[in-house]
Design goal:
Blueprint (H helix, E strand, L loop, with lengths): L4 H16 L4 E5 L6 H7 L5 E5 L14 E5 L7 H14 L8 E6 L14 E6 L9 H5 L7 H17 L8 E5 L2 H6 L1 E3 L18 H10 L5 E4 L5 E8 L14 H12 L3 E5 L6 E5 L2 E6 L29
Parallel strand pairs: 1-2, 1-4, 2-3, 6-8
Antiparallel strand pairs: 4-5, 6-10, 7-9, 8-9, 10-11, 11-12
C-alpha cells in the first residue's frame, strides 16, 4: 500500500516544520488505514501521535514504543472538534505540556465516504489556544439534561468571556442553562431584560454573532439564563436560590455560591466566570463538576494586597445581596 503523492508531500512538510519551528510533536488525525512503515520513514525523528475513531486503523501501531495512539469517541463531529479532543486527551494524560507546538495532519476537505484522502491538510497548533475547550466525554459527564451542542456553545461563550473580558476590562458573570421556569421563579430582574422582543433565531447562542452580543450583556449586573434549547431567555437576573447545604472550597465568593445554589435547587447547570482569574467553574446539583482555566488570558499585574477574603465577595455582578 503506497501513499498518495500529496500525503507524502504533507508528511515531508510536517517533518521539516518540526525541525524549523521547532515543534514538539506531529499529530495525524486519520479516517483511513495508512502505510505506517512509509509514514514512519517520512517522519523519522519526530514524536508522533495518531488519533482515530476506528481502532482497526491504528491496531498495528499499538506495539510501537515510539508512537502514541489516541482513541477518539465514535461520533459524527467536525474535524476541528475531533482534533481538539485528541489534543486535550494528550494533555490530560501528561503526554504533551501546555504551550507545546503541534503539527497536525488530517483530512479537512470533504470527500467521498468510500474513498477519502488520507491526508490533505496541515495546521500548526499552539496548545495554549486549545486547552480551554472540553472533550465530548467531559460534556457528557453533565448528563442529558442539556443537548451536547448547546453545552459546547455555552462553554465557548463562558471561556471567551473569561479570557477576553470586554473593552480591555475583565468580566465576571454566571451563565445558567436549563430549567428556565424554575430558575425564573426563584429569581428577579435587577434591570430590564435585554433579550425581550428578539426572535428565537436572534437569541440562539449556537450562532457566533449571538454569542458576541451576549458578551456585551455580560458586563451588566446579574446572571444570564439560557434554555436547554440554546435560546437566551433572560439577563440581569438576581439569583434568589439559597446556597444552604452547599460546600464550597475556601476562597470562593458570592458569585460561585450563587451558581452552586441555583444548580442545587433546580436541574439547571451553572457556569461561574471569575472576574479576577477568568477561570470557569461548572456547578451541577450544588457541586463543582468541571473547571476550565483560560491559559491564553494575558496576565495583568495587580497591586499587592494583604486581605485574605475573595474580592468577588464584594462584586454585585452575581445578583446576590
Amino acid at each position: 500500500m503506497s501513499l498518495p503523492s500529496q500525503t507524502v508531500a504533507l508528511l515531508q512538510a510536517a517533518r521539516d516544520l518540526v525541525k524549523m519551528l521547532p515543534a514538539d510533536a506531529v499529530l495525524i488525525l486519520t479516517e483511513t488505514a495508512l502505510d505506517w512503515d512509509e509514514v514512519g520513514r517520512l517522519l523519522g525523528g519526530c514524536r508522533l501521535f495518531v488519533a482515530a475513531e476506528n481502532p482497526t486503523h491504528t491496531r498495528p501501531l499499538r506495539e510501537r514504543d515510539d508512537w502514541t495512539v489516541i482513541d477518539l469517541d465514535p461520533e459524527p463531529l467536525p474535524t476541528q472538534e475531533r482534533m481538539n479532543d485528541a489534543l486535550l486527551k494528550a494533555v490530560s494524560q501528561n503526554l504533551l505540556q501546555p504551550g507545546s507546538h503541534v503539527v497536525a495532519l488530517y483530512n479537512g476537505i470533504a470527500s467521498l465516504d468510500d474513498a477519502p484522502e488520507p491526508v490533505d491538510s496541515l495546521s500548526i497548533i499552539h496548545l495554549g489556544e486549545h486547552l480551554e475547550r472540553m472533550t465530548s466525554q467531559d460534556l457528557r459527564a453533565l448528563g442529558r439534561s442539556v443537548p451536547l451542542d448547546v453545552l459546547r456553545a455555552v462553554v465557548d461563550l463562558a471561556t471567551e468571556i473569561g479570557r477576553e473580558g470586554r473593552e480591555g476590562q475583565p468580566v465576571g458573570t454566571i451563565l445558567v442553562v436549563g430549567d428556565t421556569r424554575k430558575v425564573l421563579g426563584l429569581s428577579r430582574f435587577q434591570n430590564f431584560n435585554p433579550f425581550r422582543g428578539y426572535t428565537r433565531a436572534e437569541r440562539d447562542i449556537r450562532h457566533r454573532d449571538v454569542r458576541e452580543q451576549i458578551k456585551e450583556i455580560a458586563k451588566l449586573d446579574g446572571a444570564i439564563l439560557i434554555g436547554r434549547d440554546g435560546i437566551a431567555e433572560a439577563a440581569c437576573l438576581h439569583l434568589g436560590a439559597r446556597a444552604d447545604g452547599v460546600q464550597l472550597r475556601k476562597g470562593f465568593g458570592s458569585r460561585h455560591a450563587a451558581a452552586a445554589g441555583v444548580s442545587k435547587q433546580t436541574s439547571a447547570i451553572a457556569f461561574a466566570v471569575s472576574q479576577s482569574s477568568g477561570s470557569v467553574r461548572v456547578f451541577q446539583k450544588g457541586e463543582e463538576v468541571l473547571h476550565i482555566e483560560p491559559l491564553a488570558r494575558p496576565h495583568v499585574w495587580q497591586p499587592f494586597k494583604l486581605e485574605t477574603h475573595d474580592p468577588e465577595d464584594e462584586e454585585r455582578a452575581d445578583g446576590v445581596s
